[in-house]
Here is the input.
Amino acid sequence: MKELTHIIPDGFTGKRLDKYLCDTFKIFPSRKSAYKLIKKGMVTINGDISTPNNPVQKDDAIRIILDNEYSPVYKRKLHVLYEDQYMAIVLKPPGMSVNGNFAKTIERALPFNLLQSNNEDALSVPAAVHRLDRPTGGLLVVAKTAAAMMNLSRQFQERRVKKVYRALVNGKIQDNGIIDADVDNKEAVTAYFVIDNIPSLHINWISYLELYPRTGRTHQIRKHLADLGHPVLGDSQYTHNGPLLRGKGLFLWATGISIEHPVHGWLLNVRSDVPDKFYSYLEREKRRFEKFNG
Here is the structure.
């Protein structure tokens, strides 16, 4: 058994306990998982057993007892870009879920790739602090201790983490811009910068973008670009009009992250280049276009 302690900050009074836990602690893959743990009596508020619909109040002391239920390790090698006793940053392959009730998830692969922390509040297994869409690959922040989990989760919640993405999109975008449009009735802002425009016989034009999401809504970048009329290549979910690139996966990658170390306080700036498929596809499309046009 491991336990987490947490004090409710200002601004969350009245929120349901299960929703607060799911939104705050990324160890809960869903609200249902938080609900189930509360119903088992593993969560207390100010020392008292609570219920899932209990409204939290500012300065409430939350205590969470985590089950050590057996979860088989997924023995898949991941690229680890940073690791210490408190946290790690790994590359998530596209096509894998970060967590959930699946045999092959990133979190089930973490014990195979990371060393167990020797701190007193070490998590029984490392846990992802945030999520990436299943088809999206790139940098993923992982906590190895309870204190690190709370600190890193708070940074994401307070929008202090800077994230960078690269994407290939359908159509020609000539100017840099900012998309300020709600996603699921919540504020969502994405800034984008044009790296290049490549002519294509199949798609007409492909734009290579660097993106800076200022909020972290579900599918935010994919929805914003689709609403702009330039869906990410390979995005079958949000490509409503125009050609759909099939069989090559989603051309969206989390390439950069800047986050404060949860213990030492220094700023970690980690970058990852996009996969080779980005460059090979652009080169192939450019070559075909030039050949066809003499």
